Amino acid sequence: MSRGRTTSELAALALAVFAAACSDPVPAHGETSSTSSSTGGGGSSGSAGSSSGVGTSETSTGAADSGSSGETGDGPGPEAAPLCAGGLPLQYERTDVGDPVDADALALATTQYLDLLDEVRYFALARERVHGWPQSDPRGRYWFGTWWSGVTVVKQDGMVTYRHEDHGADNNGLRTGPLLEGVCYAAALWQRPEDLALARTMARGMVAWIRAMERMPDDPDGPMLCRAFYPEPITATDDGRTIAIDYALNRPGVDADPSEYVHVPANPDWGDVWIKNKRSKDDIGHMLRAIAQSSACMSLDSEPELAADFAELRARYSAWSRRVEDDGWRIATLDKDGARWLPDDLLAYFVDAECTSKLAIRLLGRFDAGELDCGNGIGPLDPAIIAANDHNGNILRSFHEAAANNALLAGQTALAQQLVDGIVVRLDQAVDGFEGVGDPVPHLGEADLVDMLAHAAALGVPLTSREVRWLHARIATALASCADPGLQPMLHVFDAATPDGEYGFEPGGSGINFVSLAALLGTCASPCANPSGRPVLDCDMVAARVPAE
């Protein structure tokens, strides 16, 4: 963090960077923006996913400029072993802070956590809600599932329908990424086939966001990412449940800044689909982090089909990452006419201030940092960027986590160590803020800090006693919030006793984000978990108690 500047001066500098980035032409690949900050300081801009402005009508033939390695975006990527396949390569220790947690307190928190998973039927509900295209399709088209936004659960005459509203979904990686991580930890702990099957479904779901953008077989302009996409409505009969998946209101839906509905009439997988264009940065860090952490699923003797799906996930996103770099750190999409387009909106390209974002993409795409030097991942503009709105901080932090994970995945241990140092700085600042011994981090909620701590522990950061106690308090809060009887019908919508009506898709609650509940299992099951940390859960108790349905 820079010294000698006031917060207002930093804010003004950050706004100048982003204002210039939004209004000036995007620099050609290989050129440097005159408003860029030093890459040595690192840091992500975490630009808002809801940036206004429609961009330009510029189209591209799809022939990308050469990237820094000279490879094109659709070239083969380097091989990578599973994350921390031989154990955590970092020798990372922290001095303990706070009163130690004794065995009784650890057992109580573990019991409460496992009770929480049971109370919300966490894994059973995830299997019910995750959807996209069913395996039961008689035509055998590419099946997948994700965790959605923009969905109402409708029960009428006993029939359950997932009705996708006309505004569609945005940033589903915010939800699908952490859910995939947690389900993979569950698979490693309990070795249940249904957990591996759900993880495989979501891995295919992330792949589907790329496949849906293909206008023809071997689309020369790929790979690209959509925000969401909508094939024809279909009825699923997977897992013995009958569910109507109603996409009709999104064929097309209502265009709303910053995205539009685009018709892809001859997609190779699903035929006639409508996509939401202009993928934003909000959830990409979550997705790239999940691709690395999903290695927990591969620590088992898995089915060849599952291994192939996870290999495709990594290969597709590696190729997409190379394409983003080769396009001058710009995120290609389709315009309203279905032509490849590089929007000018800040949500669609990375400025130099977003060093750690670029680094995460570069590491997954080419498995080295190239010329990027992001220091410990905390840039001089971070305070102003985080303070600017309520989502920049999560974007910035998720890309930082993704960069550290993918540094480990690429075997770049020294780089990973440096980035983990920065993650620890973020943790210390966040907990200090909540405990009143430092300034609160702007827009950082309790559930956000739970996510930070869980993802740091899964990456190999040893947690301190005060952090563990803080997590235990949030577990108790989350369990208490589930006592509301009004929550039960939406948790049991398929039960005959649940009346007809409209229900929410995702349960609410306090203390912990629902989709991140299982992320705490990573303290026991992540391949990178650090044995020198204070335990968050009694892992023997966790392994011995399989979740109820």
Structural description of this entry:
It is a single chain. The chain has 549 residues and is α+β, with helices and mostly antiparallel strands. The chain has helices spanning 7-23, 103-119, 122-129, 173-190, 193-211, 284-293, 304-326, 355-366, 382-388, 392-409, 413-435, 446-459, 465-481, 488-491, 522-525, 539-544, and strands spanning 131-133, 144-146, 151-156, 159-164, 228-230, 234-236, 243-246, 261-267, 271-276, 333-334, 340-341, 501-503. The protein has a five-stranded mixed beta sheet with strand order 6-7-4-3-12, with no helix packed on it. Helix 7 (304-326) packs across helix 8. The longest helix has 23 residues, at 304-326. Mean pLDDT is 87; it is low at 1-77.
Regions with pLDDT < 50 over 5+ consecutive residues?
1-77
Share in helix: 25-40%
For the biggest sheet, the summary is:
5 strands, mixed
Cα separation of the termini: 47 Å
* Overall strand count: 12
Write the layout of secondary structure elements.
Layout: H1 7-23, H2 103-119, H3 122-129, E1 131-133, E2 144-146, E3 151-156, E4 159-164, H4 173-190, H5 193-211, E5 228-230, E6 234-236, E7 243-246, E8 261-267, E9 271-276, H6 284-293, H7 304-326, E10 333-334, E11 340-341, H8 355-366, H9 382-388, H10 392-409, H11 413-435, H12 446-459, H13 465-481, H14 488-491, E12 501-503, H15 522-525, H16 539-544
Parallel strand pairs: 4-7
Antiparallel strand pairs: 1-2, 3-4, 3-12, 5-9, 6-7, 8-9, 10-11
Helix pairs in contact: 1-9, 2-13, 4-5, 4-6, 5-7, 6-10, 7-8, 8-10, 9-10, 10-11, 10-12, 11-12
